[in-house]
Amino acid sequence: MIEESRNESSNDDIVKRLDRIESTQIAVENRLPSIIKNLYKNGFSTSNKAKTLSSWQALLSYFIRRQAIVVVISVFSGFIALSSLYFTYRANELVVIQNDLIKSQNNRIEQQTYLQEAERRSSLIFLLGNILDKIDEEVKIDQSRNLSPQLIGNIISLSSRLRPYKFLEADSLISKEVSPERGQLFVSLINSELSEATYKKIFMNCDFSYALIENVNVNIDMDYVNLSNSYIVRSRFNSISLRNSNFENSLLIDNTFYGCDLRYSKLTADTIHSEFDGSFLDRAIIDPYGFFRKGNLTLSNQILSKSYRIDSLWENPKVKFLSKNIDYNYEDYQACEKIVTEIIFSSDMYKELHKFYADKQTKVVLLSLQSPENFIDTPFPSPDTLIWEYAFHESNYYRANMSRVSSIDFESKTGKLIVYDIENDTSIEGDYDKAIYNRYVELCILRSAENH
């Protein structure tokens, strides 16, 4: 009896131990099918709470492990992505730095190239000094201050060798090539007080283009001088002859051309605060906006309006519209026209001139301006009191479709004036914006011959 009781107790212990082992195995199960099977078998059992708890514990552990793995993988992947992004950013940053270094190196190479060129050309300064010494020697011997043909030839040759270049200014290359040496040669010749014949030979043949000229007073004639693409600042040209001179594409800042003869010259320069008071500009070629620009002292009514007027036209049969004809933007061109209009209509000379045509039915177009009020009978003085000046610009602002039926040519010792009779005004009254543009004209500035 006692033995049987012991056996039963031993069996119960074994069963309990097996249940605990099984519960432990159920709890540590990590395969989802087995977990689901155990949960189905033991999850809702009330007889064996240990197995039930182990089944739910296994399911919970499974999901926790899965989520942990996902989190770890996500964190690791994010770290790898951020690392890749960082290294990509650093690589791009290094590429940018490398490009900047290459650009800086290229700039330095370019600067070095220009500096080497500048150094080579600056060696010509010694030759310039020798020529200036020879000029001093010859003018001491020749009281008429004439230079020998050989020395004049050397001066002409030197001017062509002193080519323009860029140099460093404030640790960067200047934007435009200039030749300070040509400017130095120019100033030295001006101050040498040579004979008129010598100056004529020099200025007709020397190349002073791209010269850098500052603070110079010029009192000698320089017909045919080539100062194209030059940089001329704060200089004064006093009552000298500059006929057929070339200032093409030059920059003229704060200069005075007082009483100069600039007839037939090329003034397609950018003139900033430069005065031309009393100068002759017959047949000179100008850049309209560069010459008549806001802030240019040339535009003073006290200077121009008393001597100049615009009232002559030419006809070109080609039809050209505004958008294809203007080289500058419309606002600049419009402002330029406004300034010139103010000069003309404020002129006392304009107001006092008598009308050329008494018949109000016969029209002569006055100006190619936008205002329809400018279609008036044109007053002309006697042709003998007029002389051609430079062409201002070409335009086709006409508000009407008009045709020329005849022309009258007035020739005199002071020039030639052409007047067109106009008829067939087909513009609609009050509707000028819709009228046809088919006239192409060139405005000419005329000046009274009495001012010569």
Number of helical runs? 12
Number of strands: 16
User: Mean pLDDT, nearest integer?
Assistant: 62
Oligomer: single chain
CATH topology of the largest domain: Pectate Lyase C-like
The low-confidence runs, each spanning 5 or more residues with pLDDT under 50, are 294-452
* Sheet with most strands: strand arrangement: 3-5-7-10
Q: Please report which band the strand proportion falls in: under 5%, 5-15%, 15-25%, 25-35%, 35-45% or over 45%.
A: 15-25%
Superfamily (CATH H level) name of the largest domain: E3 ubiquitin-protein ligase SopA
User: Any idea of the CATH class of the largest domain?
Assistant: Mainly Beta
Task: Describe, in plain words, how this protein is organized in 3D.
With 452 residues, the protein is an alpha/beta fold. 44% of the residues lie in helices and 15% in strands. The radius of gyration is 47 Å and the shape is elongated. The protein starts with a helix and ends with a strand. The model is unreliable at 294-452 (pLDDT under 50).
Structure described in brief:
This is Pentapeptide repeat-containing protein. With 452 residues, this protein is of the alpha/beta class.
Topology overview:
Blueprint: H1 2-28, H2 32-42, H3 49-122, H4 124-141, H5 149-161, E1 168-169, E2 172-173, H6 180-191, H7 196-205, E3 212-214, E4 217-218, E5 231-233, E6 236-238, E7 251-253, E8 256-258, E9 266-267, E10 270-272, E11 285-286, H8 288-291, H9 301-304, E12 308-312, H10 322-325, H11 330-345, H12 348-352, E13 386-395, E14 403-412, E15 415-423, E16 441-448
Parallel strand pairs: 3-5, 4-6, 5-7, 6-8, 7-10, 9-11
Antiparallel strand pairs: 1-2, 12-16, 13-16, 14-15
Helix pairs in contact: 1-3, 2-3, 4-5
